[in-house]
Amino acid sequence: MAIATVNPATGETVRTFEELGEAELEQKIALADERWRTYRTTGFEERAACMYAAADLFEKEADLAAELMSTEMGKTLAAARNEALKCAHGMRYYAEHAAGFLADEPLADPSRVGATRALGRYQPLGPVLAVMPWNFPMWQVMRFAAPALMAGNVGLLKHASNVPQCALYLESVFLRAGFPEGCFQTLLVSSRRVESILRDPRVVAATLTGSEPAGRSVAAICGDEVKHTVLELGGSDPFVVMPSADLERAAATAVDARVQNNGQSCIAAKRFIVHTDVYDAFTEKFVSRMRDLRVGDPFEASTDVGPVATEQGRADIEELVADAVAAGASVLCGGRRLDGPGWFYPPTVIADITPGMRIYLEEVFGPVASLYRAADIDHALEMANATDFGLGSNAWTNDEAEQERFIADLEAGQVFINGKTVSYPELPFGGIKRSGYGRELAAHGIREFCNLKTVWIGDEGASS
């Protein structure tokens, strides 16, 4: 894929970028290696001052950042502006809490290990490569960058090739905020060059958010090099509705959970598993709300759902829907691409899905919802867990025993009861099964790229 801004609402190529040459790439990696050796010695207060300044820039330039995101990947302008402000919130969170999260962990009774003092100390690893996706082109990067920089690491960003202006803007924010040159650099390179970067001994770890094949590739390379990785590889999140749920709230939230980010979110609810006693009532409310959504120009305030980010992405959606329909599934609304320029696909609801259909197991990255009827809570859990993914999950019930059952038995990294899955700086984020491993955000996210060094200090006067 060429490194270019292609407006998904029109299909127009707005701007193209030259890929870094080998000499330019070498200069950037060498600078990262040189910079981290001095940056790692800075204190939390110095790093926090720069991080707060970067947050200020994001808030001041939220409209500019939003325009870049909407132009490059098609999210609505309102959603894009919220993403920019969320980046600022995440930066402030780590600026405030990094020192506490990475404080020494002393052993209460060091004499038990024959020491006068013993502790665990968190220290940065070095230059970390982040391979990031286009769907949240700034927030997804910030989930890595804010904690990594506050921990004393430096970042190298290989962003998706269709959001180069977002990638360059992020680099400029950190530089203008006062971070030393080389602390955060954007690498305008194609995916084929990721392996050579990962194998460079100066790059010590990697984080990737993206497809399962991309995650497998990065994990294999880093495994061969014995380098630490954090992977978030998507999901096919269930949204379970039980009879005790508030159906109005559940249906309204279900729509938002499915079409957020034009349906292109790893933690978007995708499979709606509804107890048979309320299936018909929920379906009527849900389909009506999905049908009423306005699809259009992401820059117009009245637009609810913008275009799919890439032409191939829309083709993938069409293939999954066509496969299901050919095998007997019912389309309750949507189901056909919209006429005209751009890569628009309408909010769609599909029912009567069976295990032989691709959509039963594969993630649909667009505004398409799958409906399933569950006989009871056991059946609901069986269907919810019948996927190779395990990122987020949602369950709607006001029965406390059922809530505890879903918390215990849903196979996912996150369980949201009576709400939609959302990423917060304050909560750890990540998945299980083929949704990846490791955690972003909260204290866990900043510790992922640290060496927890064991320190043992004995009495120098003691005899050996």
From TrEMBL:
<protein>
    <submittedName>
        <fullName>Succinate-semialdehyde dehydrogenase/glutarate-semialdehyde dehydrogenase</fullName>
    </submittedName>
</protein>
<keyword id="KW-0521">NADP</keyword>
<dbReference type="Pfam" id="PF00171">
    <property type="entry name" value="Aldedh"/>
</dbReference>
<dbReference type="InterPro" id="IPR016163">
    <property type="entry name" value="Ald_DH_C"/>
</dbReference>
<dbReference type="GO" id="GO:0004030">
    <property type="term" value="F:aldehyde dehydrogenase [NAD(P)+] activity"/>
</dbReference>
<dbReference type="InterPro" id="IPR016160">
    <property type="entry name" value="Ald_DH_CS_CYS"/>
</dbReference>
<dbReference type="InterPro" id="IPR016161">
    <property type="entry name" value="Ald_DH/histidinol_DH"/>
</dbReference>
<dbReference type="InterPro" id="IPR015590">
    <property type="entry name" value="Aldehyde_DH_dom"/>
</dbReference>
<comment type="similarity">
    <text>Belongs to the aldehyde dehydrogenase family.</text>
</comment>
<keyword id="KW-0560">Oxidoreductase</keyword>
<dbReference type="GO" id="GO:0004777">
    <property type="term" value="F:succinate-semialdehyde dehydrogenase (NAD+) activity"/>
</dbReference>
<dbReference type="InterPro" id="IPR016162">
    <property type="entry name" value="Ald_DH_N"/>
</dbReference>
<dbReference type="InterPro" id="IPR047110">
    <property type="entry name" value="GABD/Sad-like"/>
</dbReference>
<feature type="domain" description="Aldehyde dehydrogenase">
    <location>
        <begin position="3"/>
        <end position="455"/>
    </location>
</feature>
<dbReference type="InterPro" id="IPR044148">
    <property type="entry name" value="ALDH_GabD1-like"/>
</dbReference>
